[in-house]
Amino acid sequence: MERKRRKLAAQYDAERAANGGGVAQVSSIFDGVTIYVNGYTTPSAMTLRRYMLQHGGRYEFQLHRSSVTHIIATTLPDAKIKFGPASDVIVHPQWIVDSIAAGKQLAVERYLLFANAYKSMAGQQSLAESLGLATAAGESLAIAPELDRRTTAGDALTRRAAGAAGAADVEQAHPDLDGLGMRRSKDEPIDPGLARLTTLGGGDFVQKFYSNSRLHFISTSRMASQEFLRKALAERYSTSQPLAREAGARQVIFHVDMDCFFASVALRDRPHLANAPVVVAHALNGSVESKSDIACASYAARARGISNGMFMGAARRKVPDLVVVPYEFDKYAAVSKALYRVFVAFSDKVQAVSVDEAYLDMTGLGQPAELASEMRAQIHELSGCTASIGAGPNMLLARIATSLAKPDGFRFLSHEHATFEIDALPLRKLPGVGYKTVRKLAKAGITSCAECRAQPRARLQALLGGSVGAKLYDTVRGLDSGTVTLPGPRKSIGTEISWGVRFTDATGAEQFVRELAGEVGRRAVEAAMVGATLTLKIKQRHPDAPAEASKFLGHGKVNSFSRSTTLAPPSSDAVALADAALTLYRGLGFEATTVRGVGIALTRLSEVESERRPALQPAAIDSQTTLSAEWHPPAVTGVGGRGAEGTVELPTFSQLDPSVIAELPAETRRELEIVYRRRLAERKRDAGRGTLTQMARPTLPSRPASAAKTKPAPMVIVLDGASGSDDDDFVSPPPQTRGSSDEGSGRDDGVDPEFLAALPSQLRREVEADLKRTSPRKSGRCDGGRKRQRGGAPSLSQIFHPSQAEGGRAARRRHLLSG
DNA sequence: ATCCTCCCCTAC
DNA sequence: TAAGGTAGGGGAGGAT
Ligand SMILES: Nc1ccn([C@H]2C[C@H](O)[C@@H](COP(=O)(O)OP(=O)(O)OP(=O)(O)O)O2)c(=O)n1
Ligand SMILES: [Mg+2]
Ligand SMILES: [Mg+2]
């Protein structure tokens, strides 16, 4: 350790010496080059400076447009990616290193940090048309090189789409680029020193991340608070009589929220900082460049323009004497606990909002001002921190009252004063009105609460959607019909990490997926729940984004993708979840080096009493005799930790005997139908995007989350069991989508999601619209082609609703079709 | 109509 | 340098 420090110090000294003292020039590689180094780089700015001086170049400490010829950076501020002047030559420092190694100045093209791919096309009319993208997939592939040619730095993702057109074309378009070289040089620069902080760093990344993530902390605290309330209130209901409330009293709601929560805790234990501009963040010595998030700013800091969520650098620029204090999660948890104890002491109707905040129904419990005063005193007593309380006739006004009361205050906001106070607020301050909503409203010329109130409800709904529009219509009038209630059972259990996520190979990425699946499984077990749907979310570096984000080890600009699948039986088992998640992950077909975030969630949850039983009770089916004889043995992966004994693997749809189904009790039949419908939907979906589960995958999935919807399946999948056992794996597409030669090329017309992702959103929309128009669902093709091989299999509806479809047929088929 | 998947948005 | 999570409401668009 000590040795390491000495070594670093020595290195620093050497650099300084090189910097201060004269540096001998040993070559003229960089004749005429003047660099300016932006942000953190590897090698360091000082090292780069020395390189320049040694090799005939010049180094500027400031960005003088007149003299600087190259800006050197490993990351770009997001703003620059979006708005950066096309004239800027921003180059990765590797250019300098490689040039020196090569003994000559290499062309910068492949080291450019970003590609202003479509700038030059801004004026063109039908973009899709001009690119020849409009028709079939084959043609869209053919134009890819053309697309590339317009790309300043040639993006690997676009090129990937071009792959099918032949690498030679790419080479011709870019004689100085070597196929995927750009992609690689983009995604590789993480150096060993940094790597240890990422998913590449070793076993405890996830654990370490969670223990340092404030967002993880406040999210999980919220669930913990709810759990605490559930228990405390339930206990209270069962052991004592309900709180005595004055009959007929008008409803009074409290909204209680700690003042600058994290900072309050910090100041409580650091009284000397009471009046200093304090923020809570990781970057204790963050410079004006720092992109560390500020979780919480003290009121002294807020008075100087600092707010929660701001980047450290931005704050430091405003307030150079900012005092940064570290996170103290244990303390926050303790204070939160004390706070919630006060809550349940004052009311038996409490709704948790967050670690530092809740609603209380105080109807008929006394004078609001007195209650609030007492409650605030208790909170302060027990926690050493101050809270503010807003009160009102409904939750909305209580909440708005809180913001008026802060800090360390109380305020009752009646209907009478509601619109007056509301009109004094910027739209953004209204609950439910976030960044996007403000923008949509502004675009429609609505910029204030008063203007909002002047709009017909229908207009707001047209602008914002039926629900949000109607909600806002009420909000600006101070109306809210919500009641203080604990939320019902959880609807999802998920985890996601989008910081420090870097992989060099598929194995590492898959291992990480496994790890997160384990995490979700653990939480599910803890919650005594199993999930029937697993969703995988992937963030992939945006094709235009540089390898490294502006925020240190952040995800940067990304496209997101989500894919879900059914777990049968519903599960919380780490292995089962991991298998499902990995299948989905592989189905996306992403280059591991481009992945910047991974998330896994379980939904369609149900509770398990003993943690031993799946949601679908085997007994319900078993009792129906005949089916069980035909079942496949339980699949190993589906069973989960609960042991094979209690679980059931459903037979393939095609194996069902309609007549047997018909004899099942209505409820069981409904349950089965839901399961099979779901499977069917998944097959279609997967087939549509050309996802292949286990085999080689010549084609690729669909659009990114941020893109417009893409078309669905070109195929109608028929579950007729023609291929026997491999359709046991309901996650995989049916056999006829695969490797079959029925469509010449052997690939279906799924469009590469990365390709679509590479397009600007407007162009992408056009492309997708055109794809839709010109290659209408070819459902007819497959329909006509391969289905019904053996005299026609019954449809799902026919199976489950024989009366509707063809009642007679069910009776005629007295056996399972295969298996 | 209603369900489903994938996505967006919001809040702390 | 830095720890950009998590859950719920809701909508679009396709399938049934
Ligand atoms: N972008 C954000 C917002 C909040 N928090 C954390 C830190 C806050 O202290 C805590 C509570 O959030 P609040 O919205 O209640 O804000 P504060 O309590 O900090 O201030 P206020 O007095 O406005 O409630 O959540 C965070 O980490 N990042
Ligand atoms: Mg607060
Ligand atoms: Mg709060």
What does it look like?
This protein is of the alpha/beta class. Among the domains are: 21-115, BRCT domain (Rossmann fold), CATH 3.40.50.10190; 214-243 and 251-407, 2-Layer Sandwich (Alpha-Beta Plaits); 414-486, 5' to 3' exonuclease, C-terminal subdomain (DNA polymerase, domain 1, Orthogonal Bundle); 493-607, DNA polymerase, Y-family, little finger domain (Dna Ligase, domain 1, 2-Layer Sandwich). 42% of the residues lie in helices and 11% in strands. The chain is built from 36 helices and 16 strands. The chain has a 5-stranded mixed β-sheet with strand order 9-10-5-11-12. Helix 19 links the parallel strand 11 and strand 12. The chain is globular and about 90 Å long. It binds 2'-deoxycytidine-5'-triphosphate and magnesium ion (2 copies). One magnesium ion binds at residues 257, 354, 356-357. The chain binds a DNA duplex (12 and 16 nucleotides) through helix 12, helix 13, helix 21, helix 24 and strand 13. It holds the Pfam family UBM. Residues 253-434 form the UmuC domain.
Considering the chains and any ligands shown, give keywords for the structure:
Alpha-Beta Plaits; alpha/beta; DNA-binding; four-stranded parallel β-sheet; single chain; nucleotidyltransferase; DNA repair; binds magnesium ion; Rossmann fold; HUWE1/Rev1_UBM; transferase; 819 residues; 36 helices
Précis, in short:
The protein is α/β, with parallel strands linked by helices and 819 residues long. It has 36 helices and 16 strands.
Characterize the overall form: globular
Q: How would you classify the helix and strand content by structural class? A: alpha/beta
User: What is the number of strand segments?
Assistant: 16
- Biggest pleated-sheet summary: 5 strands, mixed
Bound molecules: 2'-deoxycytidine-5'-triphosphate, magnesium ion
Task: Specify the CATH class of the domain at 214-243 and 251-407.
Answer: Alpha Beta
Query: At the fourth CATH level, what is the homologous superfamily of the domain at 214-243 and 251-407?
Result: Reverse transcriptase/Diguanylate cyclase domain
Question: Based on the structure given, which CATH architecture of the domain at 214-243 and 251-407 is correct?
Answer: 2-Layer Sandwich
- N-end to C-end Cα span: 64 Å
Strand order of the largest sheet: 9-10-5-11-12
How many helices? The count is: 36
Helix content: 40-55%
